[in-house]
Each structure stands twice: as C-alpha cells, then as structure tokens.
Design goal:
Blueprint: E1 4-7, E2 17-27, E3 36-43, E4 48-54, E5 63-68, E6 75-83, E7 87-95, E8 102-105, E9 114-117, E10 120-123, H1 129-133, E11 139-142, E12 150-154, E13 163-168, E14 175-179, E15 191-195, E16 206-207, E17 209-210, E18 219-222, E19 225-229, E20 236-240, E21 248-249, E22 252-253, E23 255-260, E24 269-274, E25 282-287, E26 293-299, E27 311-313, E28 322-326, E29 337-342, E30 355-361, E31 366-371, E32 380-384, E33 391-397, H2 399-402, E34 421-425, E35 428-433, E36 438-445, E37 450-457, E38 460-464, E39 470-478, E40 482-491
Parallel strand pairs: 16-23
Antiparallel strand pairs: 1-3, 2-40, 3-33, 4-5, 5-6, 6-7, 8-9, 9-10, 10-11, 12-13, 13-14, 14-15, 17-18, 18-19, 19-20, 21-22, 23-24, 24-25, 25-26, 27-28, 28-29, 29-30, 31-32, 32-33, 34-35, 35-38, 36-37, 36-39, 39-40
Length: 492
C-alpha cells in the first residue's frame, strides 16, 4: 500500500566503485521552512522497534529497518525504498531477541549493513542486491549481547572500530554495557560493564556517545547524568546532573539523547527528549568545553506528548541543527509530530528563545529515524507506532522540490561548482575543488553523522579518511554561508 498527502509545516583504498549521484549548490537565504509529504510505507506488525535507516541492498538510497519485540514474534524486516512515487517493498531479515533496542551497521566489514537485535546478529549475505532480498540468504547468530531497550554503535575504546553499546531496559533498567566486536563476528561478543547503578529504562539512543569533556575519548550521556570514560573504556565514572532530563514514570526513567556540536565551538553538546513519559520535555544542553552543561528548554511540559523519538538534523539546509520528535504511546493528547526550527543561525548557540515550532502531522511516532531517503539533498523522516496502530510512514522533505531550499551558483568559487570531484585515495578519498578563500569540507553519511571534516584555504585538494563504504554526502562550505554538495556511493 502506498498513500500520500501534503502537510504544511505549522572511505578506503579498497573502494572500487565511486559514482557521483548529484551535485547541488546551496546559498543560505531567508527562506520558508519546508513542508513534508506523507507516504505510507506499510501497515505491519505490533510493538516494533530496532529501527534504522540504512542502505541494506547498497543501491544508493536508504531503506527502513524495523523489528518486532520478542513478545510479538521477533521478526525483523527491511523495507526497500523504490522511489517517492513507487513505494516500499517488504523483505525479511530473520528473528531477533529484544525489546526496542537494535541497530544496523556493517559488523563484519564486507561493506553490507547487518543488524543486531538484542542477542541476535542477522548477517547480511551481500553479494548483490538480489541476494539481499532473499530471506533465505540471511543467517542468524546468537552472540551473547543483551536484550535491550537502547542499542547504539560507536567506538568507545578508541581502537578505531565500532563497538556496541546496550542499555538493558528490563525491569526499569538493569545496567549499561558495551561489547567488543570479535574477529569471528558470529561467536560470543565480549561484554564490558559501564555501570549497574543509576539505571535507566532508556537513555543512550539514538546517538548518546561523544567526547563530552574534551579529553579525547568517548563518553556516554544518559538521563540525569553522563558516564565519563577513563580513556580505554575499562572503568567509568558517573556524573549526576540535575538539569538533565528524565522523570520516573510507568517504565522507569527514559530519554532519547543526541550528542552533537550544535553551536560549532568545537565541543560536544547534546539534545534530549523525555520518553515513556505522558507529558515530555525537549531540551538543548550547551557544553562549556569541560563537561559542564547549561540547559536551554525547547519544549516544556504542557503538550501531553510522550516524545519517544529524537532526530537532530538540518531540515531546512540553513546551516544549523533543527530538532524532530513526535508523540508516542503514553501521550495524553492527540499524538503529533513536530520539528523545532533553530533560528539562532549557523555557529551560534541556540537558547530557549531560538526555536520555532512546526507541527508536521498528527501521527503516532515511536523510534523515528531521519536521513536523506531519496537522495535529493534534504533530510526526510521515517517512523511507526508502538501499540497505537501499525502504520509505518515516510515524511518526505519537500524543500528541494518546492524551492524553500534553493539551488544557485555558489558565489566565489571558480570554476563551476559542478566540477567538484571525489576520487579514491590510499588513505580514503581525494576531494578537489578550485576555490578562493577559506572553505570547510565535511563528509557525512545519509543520517547526518559526520565521518570526516577538513578545512583549508585556496585550492582544496585534501585526502579525507572515510570509516567504511556506502553512501555519503560531501559538503564544501564557504565562509559566506554558501555550500556545494556531492553525493556519492562507494563500495569495496
């Protein structure tokens, strides 16, 4: 089924394939906030989580990954994106063993995204898109990781490889753990304890890991406080912070957390939305550079919404970070999806007065994910409910289509911005763009996670290390607020 309607807004040497998908040039102007168009992905399942937007079949666009909780069958599916007007096709990965926690990443380094759902690894067969579409080609392995409410992948021990971070949400939270991915990925993964006190039902997803104190290692932010890494992830110190979000309700304390340098000052800030809470709050936390934080409220109590999702992304392409969330199953009022537009501007610290609320749609929202699904240069949204229906939906950002995000010649660059070139290099990728003045090259994945950033003056010809293969966006930004983008697909 495919339905739609319009809703106004109220990197490696082994890379063998490199295809430029588009080049877009954007100059920052005072533009209207984009509309979003609703599409139904499917009507399927119950009590679903384990969500990701990931290019499962490596065809250059993002697919929707979702899994049912163990009590409703444990089936994990991926919905293949066929196009904005062509709909989505359901495929089966296998069965997991978890609650809401699960994530998609390339576990075995073959260039094809796999899925970890609780204690199960669902291994992508790779080979070809057709091989991936056949459920019989996927293999399921018990790897000893925990049934969880939150699961995230990040490098916590500083070895340059992704680890698995798990918040065990059983019985209002049993602890926070991380796992090393072994050489034999189908064997039991070594478990390490972050802490079994100060437990939370949920707190570290979807992006709760970052260097919060500027000491060069990754820490973990959760509800009511953060866990400080000793440098090698062997021991952790809990720092309680009263201003962090999180209230005790039916399932215990739960928040959604997103760590990012939101004001461009070089330290890691974060956003939080309260979850499993019938009247949730949303807030931005400004880091002073040493691990002390100032809270700026974005949405205070009074909406009657259970904000069980959080996406931080530049939805209007104006150079700063906006915030999406939506009402989940414990909401007291009609469940609604919102984007708060950051009006502080690029490089500025947003305070409580710098957010404009846009009511996107009335839909139950749970564990939403954001990314450039259709590859047109703006950030879209996918979500689904928990127990309040079974509609998976896609909110297509119409900024490029409607012209609220403009494409124009990038001022000050010679020759034409369409001559942006991205090529393989021994340590990653080589980015060439003849230009005058100071520019910054940023490489992100389609969910907006930064893979690499380099800066320089005059002609840009820099090697950029990319941690893996897949689809990325290269952005070259000038100091005047203009930007040129190229999307490319790389594969081993």
């Amino acid at each position: 089924m495919h339905a739609k309607g319009r809703f106004p807004a109220a990197g490696l040497f082994g890379v063998a394939i490199l295809a430029i998908a588009f080049v877009a040039v954007l100059c920052r102007q005072a533009l209207s906030f984009p509309d979003f168009e609703h599409h139904t992905i499917a009507n399927e399942g119950s009590q679903m989580g384990q969500t990701s937007l990931s290019d499962i079949d490596q065809d250059g666009d993002l697919d929707w990954v979702v899994g049912c909780a163990d009590r409703t069958g444990s089936w994990v599916w991926w919905f293949e994106f066929k196009g904005n007007d062509a709909g989505w096709v359901k495929h089966t990965m296998g069965q997991g063993n978890t609650d809401v926690g699960g994530c998609s990443f390339d576990v075995n380094g073959d260039g094809w995204p796999d899925q970890v759902s609780g204690s199960k690894l669902l291994l992508n067969p790779g080979g070809s898109s057709e091989d991936v579409r056949s459920a019989g080609n996927w293999s399921t392995h018990s790897i000893g990781t925990k049934y969880s409410h939150d699961t995230e992948c990040a490098d916590v021990d500083g070895d340059g490889k992704l680890d698995l971070i798990v918040n065990d949400g059983n019985n209002k939270g049993q602890g926070l753990f991380w796992y090393t991915v072994p050489a034999n990925v189908t064997s039991t993964w070594p478990e390490h304890t972050v802490g079994t006190t100060n437990n939370k039902h949920g707190g570290v997803s979807p992006k709760g890991v970052g260097d919060m104190d500027g000491d060069g290692d990754n820490d973990i932010v959760t509800a009511n406080g953060w866990w400080e890494n000793d440098g090698n992830a062997v021991s952790w110190h809990y720092n309680p912070v009263g201003d962090f979000l999180g209230e005790n309700h039916q399932y215990g304390v739960a928040v959604k957390t997103w760590v990012i340098d939101a004001d461009g000052d070089g330290d890691m800030d974060f956003f939080q939305a309260e979850a499993d809470n019938p009247d949730s709050r949303v807030a931005f936390f400004e880091n002073d550079g040493e691990g002390s934080f100032t809270r700026h409220m974005i949405k205070d109590k009074g909406s009657g919404q259970d904000f069980h999702s959080l996406c931080v992304a530049d939805f209007d392409n104006d150079g700063d970070y906006d915030v999406f969330t939506g009402g989940g199953p414990l909401s007291q009022q009609t469940m609604r999806c919102y984007v708060w537009e950051n009006t502080a501007g690029k490089g500025n610290t947003p305070t409580s007065s710098d957010w404009t609320e846009h009511h996107i749609i009335d839909k139950p929202c749970h564990e939403a994910m954001c990314g450039d699904v259709d590859g047109d240069g703006d950030i879209d949204i996918c979500s689904k409910p928990w127990t309040t229906g079974n509609e998976h939906f896609y909110l297509q950002n119409m900024g490029i289509e409607d012209g609220s995000i403009t494409q124009a010649r990038l001022a000050g660059l010679t020759p034409s911005p369409t001559e942006l070139t991205v090529l393989p290099a021994p340590q990653g990728l080589r980015v060439f763009l003849p230009a005058a003045g100071f520019h910054t090259v940023t490489v992100t994945d389609l969910a907006g996670r930064v893979a690499a950033t380099v800066s320089g003056r005059s002609r840009i010809a820099r090697t950029v290390a990319i941690p893996g293969s897949g689809m990325f966006i290269v952005r070259v930004a000038t100091g005047t607020g203009c930007e040129v983008r190229a999307a490319f697909v790389g594969g081993r």
